């Protein structure tokens, strides 16, 4: 018997210019912190070490963000998934969609509140999951984020009505 592929309802793919701008800002921060630590070292060795560590963290974050934003998100009739196959959230587990102006959400994105806590995952610039909350956004376009949030809210409402 052939396995049925789920139908793709919506997808989000970060654009190249957004990816390069976001990672460029992170790389610039990392390089500036390293330069500050070595070209104008502070009097305190502890402060210099702190600058070096934060610079390395920013550079590592830049690499991780570039890798994460090379992927995208896909909404099927069953779940929201990363294009590498990572499950972000099953639609039957979504309790609410928050996308208001005062919602604590990523840039151009939305937050899903789940019925039960899930393991922590972070794809910088694309999505994160912490307990019962999933944040989608960062380097995505606002129109794609709004469209996906509206579709999830409509699907969740339709599932709740049946």
UniProtKB/TrEMBL annotation:
Keywords: Membrane, Transmembrane, Transmembrane helix
Domain of life: Bacteria
Transmembrane stretches, start-end: 20-39, 45-66
The protein's name in its UniProt record: PH (Pleckstrin Homology) domain-containing protein
Species this chain originates from: Albidovulum litorale
């Amino acid at each position: 018997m052939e396995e049925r592929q789920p139908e793709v309802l919506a997808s989000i793919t970060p654009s190249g210019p957004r990816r390069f701008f976001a990672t460029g800002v992170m790389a610039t921060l990392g390089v500036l912190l390293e330069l500050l630590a070595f070209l104008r070292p502070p009097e305190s060795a502890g402060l210099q070490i702190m600058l070096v560590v934060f610079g390395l963290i920013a550079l590592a974050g830049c690499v991780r963000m570039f890798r994460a934003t090379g992927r995208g998100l896909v909404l099927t009739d069953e779940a929201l998934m990363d294009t590498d196959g990572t499950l972000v959230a099953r639609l039957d587990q979504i309790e609410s969609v928050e996308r208001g102006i005062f919602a604590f959400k990523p840039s151009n994105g939305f937050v899903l509140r789940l019925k039960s806590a899930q393991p922590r995952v972070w794809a910088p610039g694309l999505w994160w999951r912490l307990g019962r909350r999933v944040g989608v956004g960062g380097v995505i376009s606002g129109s794609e984020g709004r469209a996906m949030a509206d579709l999830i809210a409509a699907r969740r409402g339709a599932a709740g009505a049946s």
